[in-house]
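Reminder: ligand-aware prediction takes two inputs, not one.
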Amino acid sequence: MAAPVTLTFLGGLGEIGRNCAALECEGRIVLLDCGQLFPDDLPGVDAVLPDFSWLLERADRIEACLVTHAHEDHIGGLPYLLRHVEMPIYGSAFTLGMVAGKLEFAGLPRPELVTLADHDRRRIGPFDCEFLPVTHSTPQGLMTIFGTPQGRILHSSDFKLDPTPVDGRVTDLPRLRQLSGDPGIRLLLADSTNADSAGSSSSESAIGPVLEQVFAEHEGRRIVVGAFSSHVHRIQQVAAAAAGTGRTLVVLGPSMVRNVTLARELGLLRIDDRMLATADDLEGLEPARTCVVCTGSQGEPRAALNQMAQGRHRFLTVGEDDTIVFSSHPIPGNEAAVSRLHNALARRGAKLVHSGQLGVHTTGHGKREELRELHEAADPELFIPVHGEYAHLVAHHELALERGMAPDRVLRCTDGDQVRLTDDGLELAGRVSDEYVMVDERGRPVGEDLVEERRSLSGEGFVLVRVVVDLGRGRLAEPPLVESRGWVDASERDRWGADVAGAVREAVEAALAEGVHDAEELTRRTRRATGKLVSSGTGRRPALVPVVEVRGRPGGNRDAVGNRGDRRSGKAGEAGKSGNARRRKGR
Ligand SMILES: [Zn+2]
Ligand SMILES: [Zn+2]
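Here is what comes back for the chain with zinc ion:
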């Protein structure tokens, strides 16, 4: 019996984002990618991570992390994990350059970085690895073949089959065909992102001529192109179109500037120094001879395009003489933000060109026919679809069956699944947490209760009632004070505030008459009276914040202060229960 290999999927199987898997053999672990997910509707949450707790319990057994390419859904979790785990990182030069930049930005020390070149072979932990080039929407992506006691495990990484990529670096199917012979590939893990899209993706190099056409048609106008800052080949084509029409290229946005610099240093991006300018030069440039390439095409609020749309960009004011090209496609979940951005720019008089009108964008993920070709080249014994929303995983599963794989050779896994590869095949071996771990801008955990509370506050507002009771005199020491935000229209705030104050006074006086002297009970009565009036009067459910202060003692007039501020939201606005930083999936 050869030693089994266990795979633990910590993220990426059931969503596009937070890709992370652990491969384990003879007690040693190699981590494959460590990504994050961009939250779409979580107030105050900057990133969603895999739950690393299973990994952290085994931190001393982690040999290394291998990162397949430079996208955030593959490297974005590293700054968080590296706070707790010391390990070398393996990846291509561009990927590691991006990782180093992220760690520096986070103020973390740089771990050992081991640069991989196409076709390299390395022993990493218990595995003999071989790295093959894949074409994707960021340079130097790597497919990995893990040589294990259970045979070869092939991880496709994010890939497409583009016969004419901008850098000429094609996905190495010929090598896969070689490896598919005896003893062959035991297990395939492959990108499912476009498994439900028919046909094949169009080539990245088809975008260049379309951009050139757009540039020609918009002669005499300034052109602003929004693109992903990691999409070096797209930036290359924008630069070519700019050069071809005699325009100076201005690179805007910190991440765009950083990545362009890195890619030029590595020789991955060729732009003549003489045609490059910075934000500071914008003012002196003739708009008709300027092309700006910037971030924010996904509607990100802080990025350059949105700043322009809001008229708040420091260096550039968008107007009727501008053409804005969206050289990207909205990522699922970003559609609304992108459409708001389109409208805001259109209101400023700018002309818009986007992928819905013209071929100014193509995907970096292979569609169905490309996936079929990968399966045929690798001809694996076993298959697990990875990297996709649930529907994508299902579509990829079906594709494998369609190709003739026996149903018992395909295993559909989701986040948290552990599978074991043994001489007998693949089996489910257990479950680990698949919870969403939410963190804020500074990497601090954000609890689910906090997020729910913010949601409730943003939708319903809050009502605060302060009551001071004089127990010695058996009455209120002062009229109840009512403050509210986001509950009713400002013009009605005073009227409703007076009504709440009246209802609370009545309830508290009744309680005192009954002999209730306990601050906690008086708080409960205040909350109840407020809630009743608020919901019957306005039909809304704002968070209730009763604050009751008790002075004196029943029957006496000596001052003793029993102060209690109850800051929990009331039943109406009450949200989370447990205070952890996790969140069930399937939002
Ligand atoms: Zn990717
Ligand atoms: Zn990805």
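The longest strand covers residues 462-470. Residues 369 and 394 are 16 Å apart (CA to CA). We will return to this case in the review session.
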